[in-house]
Amino acid sequence: MSGIIAQNINQIRASIPDYIRLIAVTKTVSPTAMREAYEAGIRDFGENRLQEALCKQKELQELTDVSWHFIGHIQTNKAKKVLEHFNWIHSVDSLKLAQRLNKLAEELACQPQVCLQVKLLEDPNKYGWEVPDLLADLPQLELCHHLDIQGLMTILPLGLSKTEALATFMAAKELAQEINQQQYSHIHMNQLSMGMSGDYLLAIKAGATMIRLGQIIFGARKI
């Protein structure tokens, strides 16, 4: 494995614009492999599971310039720990969760950077707002002053063609533009977190600013 991770990262970097924030998704990835990614220039790590992430953060605590991104579904009873240990939360997937995080952020005197997770196509396996519900909830999200709402996050359903995938990513971009046109004071759609190992180039073509890559960096995931 030694050297392969760095080679993969270098190949990805060469294929994407400089402004893209490359988040290495490290679910089931060992701290040793994460250190290799760090040595190859990765400074953003994305985790789906809180307990697994906390163990890795402890083991990698000397890497003080890392940004930690939480990208998995957040259970209400774990919201405080997520706020305490992550710089970014990509998976704010409901008004109830946003309001809970906002209240906790006020208590903790922090202002996490967050993305609102949107479900652009029907998918029973994914969390997130459907578009009409998100638009209806924006006035209440505007009141969440302790959240730094930076953009949208989306995950595509499995099995889409490249044409369908590109169209869905473009829909996310258009939704972000529609929200920005409403000129909220505390909601800014500057970031689009979308694109994974199989579709990140399509996501970038559609306007992604952050991509979340796991297997293309670290190899097949251990279950």
Structural account:
The chain has helices at 4-15, 31-39, 50-59, 79-85, 95-108, 131-141, 162-181, 200-206, 215-218, and strands at 21-25, 44-47, 67-70, 88-92, 113-119, 129-130, 148-153, 187-193, 210-213. It has 223 residues and is an alpha/beta fold. It has a single domain, classed as Alanine racemase (TIM Barrel, Alpha-Beta Barrel), CATH 3.20.20.10. Strands 1, 2, 3, 4, 5, 6, 7, 8 and 9 form a 9-stranded parallel sheet that branches. α4 crosses α5 and α7 runs parallel beside α8. The longest helix has 20 residues, at 162-181.
Key traits:
TIM Barrel, alpha/beta, 9 helices, globular, 9 strands, 223 residues, 20% strand
Compose a concise summary of this entry.
The chain is an alpha/beta fold. It has helices spanning 4-15, 31-39, 50-59, 79-85, 95-108, 131-141, 162-181, 200-206, 215-218; strands at 21-25, 44-47, 67-70, 88-92, 113-119, 129-130, 148-153, 187-193, 210-213.
Averaged pLDDT:
96
Return the string of H and E elements.
HEHEHEHEHEEHEHEHEH
As for the number of domains, it is: 1
Number of strands: 9
Class per helix and strand makeup: alpha/beta
Helix content bin: 40-55%
What is the first-to-last residue Cα distance? 18 Å
Oligomer: single chain
Lay out the secondary structure.
Layout: H1 4-15, E1 21-25, H2 31-39, E2 44-47, H3 50-59, E3 67-70, H4 79-85, E4 88-92, H5 95-108, E5 113-119, E6 129-130, H6 131-141, E7 148-153, H7 162-181, E8 187-193, H8 200-206, E9 210-213, H9 215-218
Parallel strand pairs: 1-2, 1-9, 2-3, 3-4, 4-5, 5-6, 5-7, 7-8
Helix pairs in contact: 4-5, 7-8
